[in-house]
Specification:
The chain is α+β, with helices and mostly antiparallel strands and about 600 residues long. The chain contains 7 helices and 37 strands. Strand 20 and strand 21 (about 305-310) form a beta hairpin.
């Protein structure tokens, strides 16, 4: 079922510098704020749990004004909607996997939750959403208080002056309909899970609070921290302290009139690495707020034709992961969900997970960091983005700010990936993504910035690799499916490479082919049989070809688990799944898993 919903192109966006208040202004004049960071260590009350819902596949809720929760008063009154008597949905969670009638819904579901408020004088109250896919309109006690677009990044709304003492009602209109000028756009190869998919919290702060901070090593340094702290609501300068008790660090500074304080100190850190994922307890204090975080320190950079971690070359042994719990067939969001995926990546032998093709939950990023898995975080700039639409560059900038803002203190994140499989001929594509690269470097220069390309030519057993975006990418990252979408044109060991950017490391960000677990008819040369043997042969050939690639710094098979994708319509073998996983949706190891495991073990 696909319901086409109205979307206004007149939305206005205004994004300020990261670290300052970053706001999204809609045509209604309502504001949704980019969220404060490190929500798990705030004074918060969870609103997770059962929410009442109204299913609205026809899109009638707007003109019925569902958010007002009207009740009949006179004998002749009636109201054609009601949360009472309807179903409940778990939050966080996608709506598609919770009710069978919503399995394929792309449309609107209205959510309702009540909470008690007893806010004390001098305090502030925020309503924080970890993510809502794709568009959210938020109402409090019948009044619209904010909107947000983007299915994978957090946002918040301040409700200090709007929440009543006593009982309050939140109503959220959630719509996951694909839109042409959305991020991603109309077409993508994964399941479009809709709903309030991550945590919802009420966060109480003092009138002035620590909104944001950056505490990471200076680019290229192994011992010097260079960063800042940003206060919100500060009227006068405040004393700021950053403490790392294990290192006896108590750095003192002072905020300026805009609430900004610079941080710069040195120490002998035990550096974070996949072999030793060291994290320190870090305490950030202002005169009336305190936030505790677990932060690691490491250096990541490109030196010549190699990627260096902590001053030494490293080979990136990676795998692609979608944010889907393979056992529940639902959007992954908990730490337990994350471990199902990350434990499997560790068993395969990985030191890096590419979290495709959108920012995954903070639980996923933090658990990966604890486990010693480097993280590749990616914007949902996937294939057919309408870069020439006037609002798209503004949406790109907002989503970039929200992704970087949330995870910039996670030392495990080593890559900001700004696009995947976009096309040079798309109007305004180059201009928009070059500007995005420049903005990303301006707000965080400490990580690798990458664009992933799949437009390389393959003829006469030779790859010709060229794209203007590679001028702005730290890696020559390319997706190639030789042996699956394109047949081999010679021996894998004889492949030639014509790479226009011969001074940069090359990363194979996707490769592989499909196989249904248990399909083993013995044929290794018939793709249409979807056999494990055919997939296994692809992997053997690919590994043979890897030896021919100049400057190879890492490889990343597509992908870990089979995952749901409605475009996969072979009803015998695919059954609504992309079958390129080295593991089935039940976690069963295909023959290709063993090939990849052995390769990583020997690298």
């Amino acid at each position: 079922m696909k319901i086409n919903m109205y979307f206004s192109n007149q939305n206005l966006f205004r994004v300020q510098a990261i670290g300052l208040l970053c706001l999204l202004q809609f045509s209604t004049g309502l504001i949704a704020q980019t969220a404060m960071i490190n929500v798990s260590n705030r004074n918060k009350t969870s609103l997770n749990g059962q929410w009442q819902v109204i299913l609205d596949p026809a899109g009638a809720g707007d003109w019925k004004q569902v958010w007002q929760e009207k009740k009949p008063h006179e004998k002749t009154d009636f109201v054609e909607y009601s949360f009472d008597g309807g179903p409940y949905l778990k939050v966080p969670g996608d709506f598609n996997s919770q009710l069978c009638e919503l399995t394929y819904l792309e449309g609107t579901v209205w959510y309702k939750k009540q909470f008690e408020n007893s806010l004390q004088p001098g305090k502030r109250l925020f309503l924080h959403f970890g993510a809502v896919n794709y568009k959210a309109d938020v109402y409090l006690n019948g009044e619209k208080i904010g909107s947000h677009e983007g299915g994978f990044t957090p946002f918040q709304v301040e409700i200090t002056d709007k929440a009543k003492s006593g009982s309050n009602t939140i109503v959220v209109k959630v719509n996951n309909n694909r839109i042409g000028n959305g991020l991603p756009g109309i077409s993508y190869d994964w399941f479009n899970y809709g709903g309030i998919t991550r945590d919802v919290d009420l966060i109480e702060t003092n009138s002035s609070y620590i909104e944001d901070y950056l505490i990471q090593l200076k680019k290229g340094s192994l011992n010097k921290v260079l960063g800042w702290v940003q206060l919100n609501g500060a009227q006068i300068a405040q004393n700021i302290k950053v403490k790392i008790p294990e290192l006896n660090i108590a750095f003192k500074t002072k905020s300026d009139e805009k609430g900004r304080a610079k941080i710069e100190f040195s120490s002998h850190f035990k550096l974070w690495s996949p072999e030793s994922p060291k994290l320190y307890k870090v305490i950030v204090e202002s005169e009336n707020d305190e936030v505790t975080d677990s932060i690691g320190f490491r250096s990541i950079e490109v030196k010549g034709k190699e990627v260096w971690l902590n001053g030494k070359p490293i080979f990136l042994k990676a795998v692609n992961i979608h944010e889907e719990n393979p056992h529940t067939k639902a959007r992954a969001h908990t730490s337990e969900d994350a471990h199902i995926l990350l434990d499997a990546a560790k068993e395969l032998g990985c030191n890096l997970v590419r979290l495709a093709h959108y920012p995954h939950s903070e639980n996923m990023v933090r658990e990966a960091e604890k486990m010693g898995l480097m993280v590749w975080s990616e914007l949902p700039v996937y294939q057919h983005i309408q870069f020439s639409d006037s609002v798209v560059p503004k949406k790109l900038e907002l989503m970039l700010n929200e992704m970087v803002r949330r995870d910039k203190n996670r030392c495990g994140v080593i890559v900001w990936s700004l696009s995947n499989e976009t096309y040079p001929g798309t109007p305004n594509r180059n201009e928009a993504l070059i500007k995005m690269t420049q903005k990303c470097k301006a707000i965080d220069s400490t990580r690798l910035i990458v664009h992933v390309i799949n437009t390389q030519a393959y003829a006469n057993n030779t790859f010709k690799v060229w794209d203007p975006l590679y001028n702005y990418s730290d890696l020559v990252a390319l997706n190639e499916y030789i042996g699956w979408y394109i047949p081999w044109q010679g021996k894998p060991s004889d492949v030639k490479w014509n790479v226009a950017f011969s001074d940069k490391p090359v990363f194979i960000s996707e490769f592989g082919g499909e196989a249904k677990y248990g399909s083993n008819d013995g044929a290794t040369d018939v793709a249409a049989n979807w056999t494990e043997g055919y997939q296994e042969k692809i992997y053997k050939d690919q590994i043979e070809m890897f030896n021919t690639i100049p400057n190879l710094c890492g490889v990343c098979p597509w992908l870990l688990f089979d995952y749901r994708s409605l475009g996969r319509m072979n009803q015998v073998y695919q059954q609504g799944y992309n079958r390129k996983g080295v593991l089935s949706e039940h976690g069963e190891k295909k023959k290709a898993w063993h090939i990849m495991h052995e390769y990583f073990k020997n690298k």
